[in-house]
Amino acid sequence: MKYSAKYLPIYIAFALAVGVVLGGILNFPSTPEYIVKNSSKNKLNKLIDFIDKEYVDNVNTDSIVNLTVDNILAKLDPHSIYIPPSEQVEVAESMKGNFVGIGVNFYMYKDSVAVIKPVANGPSAKAGVESGDRILYADKTKLFGRKLPSDSLFSKLKGAIGSDIELTIYRKSENKKIKIKIRRAVIPIKSVDAALLVDQSTAYIKINRFAETTYSEFIYSLEKLKRQGAKSLIIDLRDNGGGYMEEAIAIADEFLPNKQLIVFTKNKNGNIDKTFATEKGSFEKGNIYVLINENSASASEILAGAIQDNDRGTIVGRRSFGKGLVQREMDFADGSAVRLTIARYYTPTGRSIQKPYGKGNDAYYKESESRIGNGELYEKDSIKVLKTVKYKTKKGKTVYGGGGIVPDVFVPLEVEHGSESTAYLLQSGILGNFVFEQLDKDRKDFKGLTFEHFRGKMSQTDVYFKAFQNFIYGNGLNLNFGKSKELVKRYLMAEFARQLFGESYYYQIVLKEDAMIKAVLK
To answer: Which domain of life, per UniProt (predicted)?
Structure first.
């Protein structure tokens, strides 16, 4: 299902993650120097120089090189990719875990930059920027009425740490323009979305990707929840496409006894590099549950595989993506980069969870789509794995290689969401867009409400459910919510809570009826 870009809210913290390829393990040793000796390589260099100097028309040889690089990498594997300079900056910031800016979540609403919510304790919040404000000018640069692309907007709002920017704001609630001076600062891009107790002794931590700060964020959250009485732990890796391998390994180390194998890699020369747990584990006794789905990939699969193969916990959900390749990144002078697959990784039992890619990239990614058609999102028996590639854990449990992590406890999509169309819609940007527009009509209706009063207000009305149904029809989507009313109302309430109160409140509402959480708590 495709949605028009104008209906997708742009959250600045998450937009900086654009360009991270699904399942990218960013395990980069220092980059070696390469000397061109091969005659075929020299042929390519000479051809580009020849075109540059002699071709009859003016040609951007950089674009030719980019096409050449893309075509070469396409012949290798789906995860060896070229990243152009504009995307590489965003990827680097996202994986670093912070950037320098003004600290707002914003969305291009009609022809203007609308503030969804200032980052808590960030520069904009401290300077007085409010939800619903329109940013008309950044210094003297006009931002409204120009349909600027996201990267242009980011460049206007980001800058050097400690530098000042003057925003001209239109505040709809007061019908006036305001000038606000903001001093740019480091803005964290959190990889842990939520950390809370789902009952008196069960902690829940949601990880959206594995960035440089993920381990420290995770440990901080885990220690806080332990102090609140957590004895068991749910790690939610659903829709986590991966990231830094080291961060996933460090988290796995917290759960495994000293010298237990976490993961190993093997390169083209057959060299094997094994990583074992150390003595530092802070949660080696409590029950562990790892939630995965069809979009959990790479570093997520390393963590899930280590837990499953060492019989340390229970994997809950649906079969993961199936990405078991390790990349090294090579940077170029123009700011672009190439990620090249340099090894395969294997879970402790010795299984590779990489799904086949010999039929080309299109077939590789369509395999994920085919899981709906072949029924495996609904029935565990429909999961396609290489049953001949069997492995045994230390306690004798059978696990399979060749296509993702198969959960110990299967939770079908239809139980979790009602229908796949409704499921993907409710977790897409279009829901956030709708909620912003509803809040924008009259924020006074929600001003001063406590979270509990807000929940009571939302649960007693169908106004927003009916409005959302009309919104969907009005945007050309023929999707009737009649059979999923309670589900849609819950996600609507959760999105209102996110924009009004913050990210953790979204999860407080959604998790109450989450099928995977229910499966754990049983």
So the answer is: Bacteria
